[in-house]
Amino acid sequence: MTQFFSMRRVRAAFIVLLLVPLSVPAQNLPDLGDAAQADLSPSLERRIGESLWRQARVRERNYIDDPEISGYLNSLADRLIAKLPASQQDFELFALRDPTLNAFAWPGGFIGVHSGLMVAAQSESELASVIAHEISHVTQRHIARQFSRRSESTIVALASLIVAVLAARGSSQVAQAAMVTGQAAVVASQLAYTRDFEREADRIGLQMLNGAGFDTRAMASFFERMQRSVRFYESNSPTYLRTHPLTADRIADASARIAETPYRQVPDSLDFLLVRAKLRAHDGDAREAMSEFENRLRDVQGPARIAARFGLAHAALRVRDFTRAQAEADALRAERLDSAMLDNLAGRISFEAGDVRTAAERFREGLERTPHARALVYGLLDALLADKRADEALMLVNDEVKLFTQDPQLFRYQARAHAALDQRLAQHRAQAESYALNGQYQAAIEQLDLAQRSADGDFFQQSVVDARLRELRERLMELRRDGL
Fold it and tell me: How far apart are CA 181 and CA 14, in angstroms?
């Protein structure tokens, strides 16, 4: 007999997720549509992943909101997928501050990478091998294919899917929640990809790695280190191995494929070295990081030495040792390297030291070399606003918003510039767009309500606000009707 499942009953299946304080709350899960649908469509995958990602940006305390780090990860992914057949799949990579070696794919092309993995990677090719593997899980639609194999009801499958993608983050609370539901075995099978899927991801990932010009043997070196970690951790193995089972057959299969690829030595990019140094500089005790980088400066040359200076400057900036930070930045500027990250460091040191005029000059110089670089744009906006040059800041941010319409941070800067110019309607409208881009529709509506009550807008501006307010209210009503 066919059973009809209403969205209220689907919501009941998620009650367990509401009982534990997850970093990505279950009450903000995406609209799941028709729960009787047997397949997980690409559009539904994207909605699930996008909702989880938006909530992570707002609520996950370990989410690294750093345009240089996320920009590097996404440029690395772009390089890996450049030679793949044309696809409508978009990817969004993000970083989380977590010392464990882990990376995970959420539905719809959202891939999280732990800072511990980036810092521990012994080469850029090794990091690329892990990301290529995760991209392969997405391109081969492994989550959807695993979902379609499920024999239990769609409600349980959907619920356990959400538990699984969150538990891939390594949350023990999620695992406890799964036990409460009585679906521990169901979730356990969802958490780990099948051996066939792992081999397929290895094969496709290896092709990506080779096509992008990386050292394919880095995949084998990563496997070897994971094997050693299993022996070291014994029963408490890393999260990555709990969701990506590493068997002898899998290692042998991957090794055989790697042996067929040409050997190449691939130097690490400067961006990779700088990102690793920045992550280390901002992790743990800043003075310990300074000491570590000082020791490294005595032992290394070339790009590794540049990265050590970069990390030392960032660590010094954390303890507000502006003299030391500036000395390292000056040494880096003397290298005359074309690097947006080095330009941003120079501007940020001046800004934190209170010299906003020099900071603005440094950020502008960087933008001349690397137009639209997010960190440099944000830095210049900070400097202009601090220097009470809100009109210049508004001109800059308006140009950037036209190009990057999905950047909530730009809308926040736009709101700040309007506020400094006492343009209340425009301020609240910009803040509303920032909230909406993060899925915070109620907060966005409240901002538009304030915009409506502002007395400084003309008829056209008020009409735009009214139309946007109706649109967001309808969106929020749809979500509430679906019990989300």
Answer: 10
